[in-house]
Each structure stands twice: as structure tokens, then as C-alpha cells.
Amino acid sequence: MYVMPKALESYWTMYMRKLGVEKIFRRSESLFTAVVMGMFMSTYRNSPGHLSGYARRIMYQLMGPN
């Protein structure tokens, strides 16, 4: 369970270097995180029933009622 994500990350890094596009994706992690958090917050606001109970409880503790 520990080795597989590390191996995939290593493969992804080597593949991006080989293609020469690592400069394009250098800041993509923060952009991806922002998009996912936006989708999560939108779901929490508009249809919280689609989220798991655990996620709803955490969001309620952090953000309050929707």
C-alpha cells in the first residue's frame, strides 16, 4: 500500500521529463487542488446528501451549516 503510490509518482515524473513537459505541469498540483475544493464546496452547499456523513460532519465543523 505504500510502494505503489510511490512507484506511480516516480513513473509519472520520469515520463514527464522524457516528454519535456514538466515545466507546464509544475504548478498544476495547486490548480488541481483548487478545482477539487471548489467542486467539494459546491456539492456541500447545493446537495450535501451526496457527500459521506464523515465529510459532512467535518465541513459542518469547519464551515458551519450550509
Give the overall form.
elongated
- Bin the strand percentage: under 5%
Rg is 17 Å
Annotation field: number of helices: 3
What are the segments in which pLDDT stays under 50 over at least 5 consecutive residues? none
Q: Pairing-aware structural class of the strands and helices?
A: mainly alpha
The amount of helix comes to over 70%
The N- and C-terminal alpha carbons lie at a distance of 36 Å
Mean pLDDT: 83
Number of strands: 0
Word description of this protein:
The protein is mainly alpha-helical. It has one domain. 71% of the residues lie in helices and 0% in strands. It has three helices and no strands. The chain has helices at residues 3-19, 28-46, 53-63. The longest helix is centred in the middle third of the chain and has 19 residues, at 28-46. The chain is elongated, with a radius of gyration of 17 Å. The mean pLDDT is 83.
